[in-house]
């Protein structure tokens, strides 16, 4: 028990020393206000919230979300194939991918129409 207490204390002291050393050595200045402001989607946080934003940014974010969900839903399929009917999981997976690819095609075609305007 004493060894655990000493190890915890040494870990705490080392981590505090590294944090204090990093804050002393860092080159932060008070006048660097732009770097301290929050950055979200390239907008100025103090500006008007009614400004339109890039449709290309929106489409890329939407495609990222679609494929992120797709990977999450399709990841357990190979491990489930060993204990269930292979044909039903194959059909379900192919149908799911088909619906996602159809949505991706629709988004890209709508984006191409918007970009051409």
Automatic annotation (TrEMBL):
Cellular component annotations (GO), alphabetically ordered: mitochondrial membrane; NADH dehydrogenase complex
Membrane topology of the entry: Multi-pass membrane protein
Entry's family note: Belongs to the complex I subunit 3 family.
Protein name: NADH-ubiquinone oxidoreductase chain 3
Domain of life according to the entry: Eukaryota
Keyword annotations from UniProtKB, A to Z: Electron transport, Membrane, Mitochondrion, NAD, Respiratory chain, Translocase, Transmembrane, Transmembrane helix, Transport, Ubiquinone
Localization terms from the record: Membrane; Mitochondrion membrane
EC numbers: 7.1.1.2
InterPro entries given in the database record: NADH_UbQ/plastoQ_OxRdtase_su3, NDAH_ubi_oxred_su3_sf
Transmembrane keyword on record: yes
Lineage of source species: Eukaryota, Metazoa, Ecdysozoa, Arthropoda, Crustacea
UniProt cross-references to Gene3D superfamilies, sorted A to Z: NADH:ubiquinone/plastoquinone oxidoreductase, chain 3
MF terms in GO: NADH dehydrogenase (ubiquinone) activity
Sequence intervals crossing the membrane: 53-75, 87-106
Role description: Core subunit of the mitochondrial membrane respiratory chain NADH dehydrogenase (Complex I) which catalyzes electron transfer from NADH through the respiratory chain, using ubiquinone as an electron acceptor. Essential for the catalytic activity of complex I.
Coiled coil (residue ranges): none
First and last residue of the signal peptide: none
Catalytic function, reaction form: a ubiquinone + NADH + 5 H(+)(in) = a ubiquinol + NAD(+) + 4 H(+)(out)
Broad enzyme group: translocase
